[in-house]
TrEMBL record:
Belongs to the glycosyl hydrolase 63 family. It holds the Pfam family MGH1-like_GH. The keyword Transit peptide does not apply. This is Trehalase family glycosidase. Residues 143-432 form the Mannosylglycerate hydrolase MGH1-like glycoside hydrolase domain. GO terms for molecular function: hydrolase activity, acting on glycosyl bonds. Keywords: Glycosidase, Hydrolase. The keyword Ribosomal protein does not apply. It comes from the Bacteria.
Amino acid sequence: MQRREFTKKLGLTVSVMGISGMYACKDETTVSETKPKPDCPSDFKVTPELSERMYNRALEITKSKVRGGDTELFFKKPFIDAAFSQNIFLWDTCFMVCFAKYHLDELPVYQALDNFYDRIDNDGYICREYRQDGSPLWSKEHPVSINPPLLAFAELEIYSISQDKERLKKVYPILKKNFEFLVRTYQMEDDLFYADTLGMGMDNIQRYPKGWNNDGNGMTHHELGEKLGKMDATGEERLNTFIAEYPKTLQGVWNKQGRLVDFSSQMAMLADQLKTIAEVIGVSEDIASYTEIHDKISRAINKFCWNEEDSIYYDLGFGKQIKRKHIGMYWALLGKVVPEDRMERFLSHLENPEEFGRRTPLPALSADDPDYRGWGDYWRGGVWAPTSYMVLKGLKVCGQDTLAKRLAQKTYQSVAEVFAMTHTFWENYSPDLISYGMPAKKDFCGWTALIPIAVYKEFVS
């Protein structure tokens, strides 16, 4: 996740416990030596009492991190918050809504979304992160400034519980305006979309082709991190330097060369969701345009990004497929772009132990990728509640309820086992060890409360 990248690169504190609360199979000793088997059995049992304790603790942590009021510089109304810093984060907020929807009477959910709507520019731009004074952290001129477009997703999750059409009527013009900005700004001539890895939230997954160096121009994330580490400056000064320098890195200058399956699928999903909202509130004149753009994106993804031999979608670079499998490919499910005759093959990767079917399933990067790390290494192997929830919701949309339940139960079991050892929830989890990921922030209900609340209610119980 993007600000965690700041934490690592800027030398700020990450709250991570020692390795004593972690184990693999019994013949393995250290993190550096271990190569756990993904099917290594566990005799740990999740009891109803433990599930109840997890649920209540997740809700308790979420309530404790509600903010907004007279002590705030800008945000004066209470709202749920990921509580990573004093800034607010868009895709964290949207995923928090997906579990907070069950407690609308206890949690200030609407205002968390309204904080972003209130900041919208005249052209429809909404930044993915705002400072505590209400100003955008990132420049609109660079795609690092946008997140996955999940506001309509969040609103429909609320609507599934509240059935509040007046809320949808209120936010629809804002959602439509933002959608039009994203289409106008990031859709390319082939109908696919470009974006930035950091903006899309999967910080340290390399999206550009191996060996690409922009003719020697641009530094790597590692080089930028070394530069920041040598600075005799405060954390805020390092952060500001990172913001200024990031567009000059290899990843920062790559973007327009690439076409991203996740962002393209998310935009197809957004078109479909706006169509649904338009139908619910009776804005029939908009429906055809959403159908048209969804179909265009779907055709482009299947034409350019599908690999018949590997049975998966790949990002593009310079018109060629970049053969790296990451969990972002499965936004195609919620985007409703996968043809029926490709569905079974596409889903087969999710339970393949050499790919995404690890001990804790659905790591951010496939296990057969050379950059995969079984202990996590953030998005180079970590299991993240938001992307796991995305896969589960996508499977449900596609009628794959049985597969969704199997994956949900395995994920829930691992999170429960770590909870039993640490008595809290973590920013991400290791795919191959029964452990939090490394690095990972503790007491994170942020989006990790999805597992003990939303995943439990929707897929496990």
